[in-house]
Amino acid sequence: GAVVSQHPSWVICKSGTSVKIECRSLDFQATTMFWYRQFPKQSLMLMATSNEGSKATYEQGVEKDKFLINHASLTLSTLTVTSAHPEDSSFYICSAREGGDLEAFFGQGTRLTVV
Amino acid sequence: GQNIDQPTEMTATEGAIVQINCTYQTSGFNGLFWYQQHAGEAPTFLSYNVLDGLEEKGRFSSFLSRSKGYSYLLLKELQMKDSASYLCAVLDSNYQLIWGAGTKLIIKP
């Protein structure tokens, strides 16, 4: 099956620093990538959708200058949390979809803790 | 607005059967997914229904009724490893996934 690799699995950073999370599709071309965050005991919240080579589309309430998304190739998308604060601590998950396929495959997730 | 409802938590006994319901109201419908998510991990795909009826896959089955905006996930012969959250998600008219809040399933010996 299709594999999406997300890195790092967990990261601890100091408040005010930036953190980059990578999401790679290993055996398919990820035409569309989705970035989610998930707080404990809550469902996935879509942050943004990105199509290769285009600017990401952010959901309402998500600050695009704070959560920078780059999808420069068909196999890699990155999410950079800039000037991270403790309230940004969360579980971030990417998923990728190829072309017109309906199923999206998930990365392993990144547990971000900002101290 | 778009809405997906599923119970917050359910408890069942090892070896038994449990049914997790999901009702939805979305702008358009292009299929319904069920995902399993263990604590601290990303969701994993369980099933996809786009036509009415029952889809069986091993111990897991998923049912869909589009006219009722209703689906359920049926888990048979429950095992302790089935303890997880089960997420219902609908693909809307824009092919975006709308997620339910998930049902935490607790399996007791």
Would you mind describing this structure in some detail?
The complex is a heterodimer of chains A (115) and B (109). Chain A has 115 residues and is mostly beta strands. Chain A has no helices and 11 strands. Chain A has strands spanning 4-7, 10-13, 19-25, 32-38, 45-51, 57-58, 67-73, 76-81, 90-97, 105-106, 110-114. In chain A, strands 2, 4, 5, 6, 9, 10 and 11 form a 7-stranded mixed beta sheet that branches. A 4-stranded antiparallel beta sheet of chain A has the order 1-3-8-7, with no helix packed on it. Chain A is globular, with a radius of gyration of 13 Å. The mean pLDDT of chain A is 91. Chain B is mainly β and 109 residues long. Chain B has no helices and 11 strands. Chain B has strands at residues 3-5, 9-13, 18-25, 32-37, 44-49, 53-57, 60-65, 70-75, 84-91, 97-99, 103-108. In chain B, strands 2, 4, 5, 9, 10 and 11 form a 6-stranded mixed beta sheet that branches. In chain B, strands 1-3-8-7-6 form a 5-stranded antiparallel beta sheet, with no helix packed on it. In chain B, a hairpin with a 5-residue loop joins strand 9 and strand 10. The termini of chain B are far apart. Classes of the chains: A mainly beta (115), B mainly beta (109).
Strand content of chain A: over 45%
**Rounded Rg of chain A:** 13 Å
Write down the overall mean pLDDT of chain A.
91
Which band does the percent of strand residues of chain B land in? over 45%
Given helix and strand content, the structural type of chain B is mainly beta
> Would you list the SSEs of chain A in sequence order as H and E?
EEEEEEEEEEE
**Span of the ends, CA to CA of chain A:** 37 Å
Major sheet characteristics of chain A: 7 strands, mixed
Please give the share of residues in helix of chain A. Answer: under 10%
The outline of chain A comes out as: globular
Percent of residues in helices of chain B comes to under 10%
Radius of gyration of chain B: 13 Å
Order of helices and strands of chain B: EEEEEEEEEEE
Residue stretches of chain B low in confidence (pLDDT < 50, at least 5 long) are: none
- First-last Cα distance of chain B: 40 Å
